[in-house]
Amino acid sequence: MERGYGNSTNLVIALPAEARPLIDMLNLKRDQRNRAMPLYSADAVRLVITGPGATAAAQGVRYVHDVRPHSHAHWINIGICGHGTLAVGTPILVDRIVDVQGGGEWSLPLTHPLFNCVGPLACVPQPQAEYEAEMAYDMESCGFIEAVTAINSLTSATVMKIVSDNPDNDVQQISGKYVRRLVQQHLGLIRSLIDSPQSNDSYPVPQ
Q1: Exposure on the CB side of residue 21, measured as CA atoms within 13 A
Q2: CA 189 to CA 167: how far, in whole Å?
Q3: 161: β partners
Q4: CA–CA distance from 15 to each of 3, 18, 185, 200 (Å)?
Q5: DSSP state of 112
Q6: What is the CB neighbour count within 10 angstroms for residue 107?
Q7: Domains annotated on the chain, with CATH
Q8: pLDDT tens readout for residues 34-84
Q9: pTM given for the model
Q10: Residue 207 has pLDDT above 70, yes or no
Q11: Considering all CA atoms of the chain, what is the largest pairwise distance in Å, rounded to the nearest integer?
Q12: How far is the CA of 19 from the CAs of 11, 23, 63, 99, 182, in angstroms?
């Protein structure tokens, strides 16, 4: 597969239920030599399952980099999120990450033409019960972006989230089967994201 950034893509995923549809789609195989975290690979794609939370996501980024350093990899964080207004199942391309606990903020480059929803993401230390209207919520993104920017540049990072809960759909309903179904609904979009070159001006951003 031809891709930008040295044709190397690293997927950083928190939950096994989020990862399984991607492992199957990409025909990834478990790396039996490296067992600190579940790591899967095929060709130039690697996927690590980190567990939930920003600290775990950062550890996952560093782990993949230590196993196979690549100075021009495309790093993608994919997972579920809460949102104040968007319907369950809506995919979001993240343009800004806010660390609610630590106070950091990052603006991400946007390079993919197929997303109808682009917006900010607040990284919180635990599942969110209250939602601001135009904000998405996750628990991994600030750790992911901090670790990626320590290794590479901000332009090498992409964050995609799928809405799993909102004010009308409580976070308590979320199960592994539910999460897998959400990810499976957007495998085509995820595949196009993986296959797209990563550069600041490749595509216009839909408004």
Answers
A1: 20
A2: 26
A3: 79, 92
A4: 26, 5, 17, 29
A5: -
A6: 10
A7: 4-186 (3.40.50.1580)
A8: 788 999 999 889 999 999 999 999 999 999 999 887 768 899 999 999 999
A9: 0.90
A10: no
A11: 45
A12: 9, 6, 17, 24, 11
* Sequence-separated (6 or more) residues with CB below 8 Å from residue 58: 143, 144, 146, 147
Per-residue confidence at 2, pLDDT binned at 50, 70, 90? very low
CB atoms within 10 A of CB 204: 9
Q: Cα(147)–Cα(115) distance, rounded to whole angstroms?
A: 25
Question: Per the structure block, which two tokens stand in for 130?
Answer: 């209250």
d(CA 48, CA 64): 7
Place of tokens 């993986």: 194
Size (the chain), residues: 207
Tokens of 37: 């975290």
The helix/strand/coil state of 86 is coil
Q: What does DSSP say about strands 118-123 and 91-99: parallel, antiparallel, or unpaired?
A: parallel
pLDDT (average), residues 92-121? 91
The residues, ordered by sequence, that sit 6+ positions from 136 with a Cβ below 8 Å of its Cβ are: 81, 82, 83, 84, 86, 92, 94, 119, 120, 121, 122, 161, 163
Burial class of residue 173 in the structure, from the number of CB atoms within 10 Å of its CB (0-12 exposed, 13-18 middle, 19+ buried)? exposed
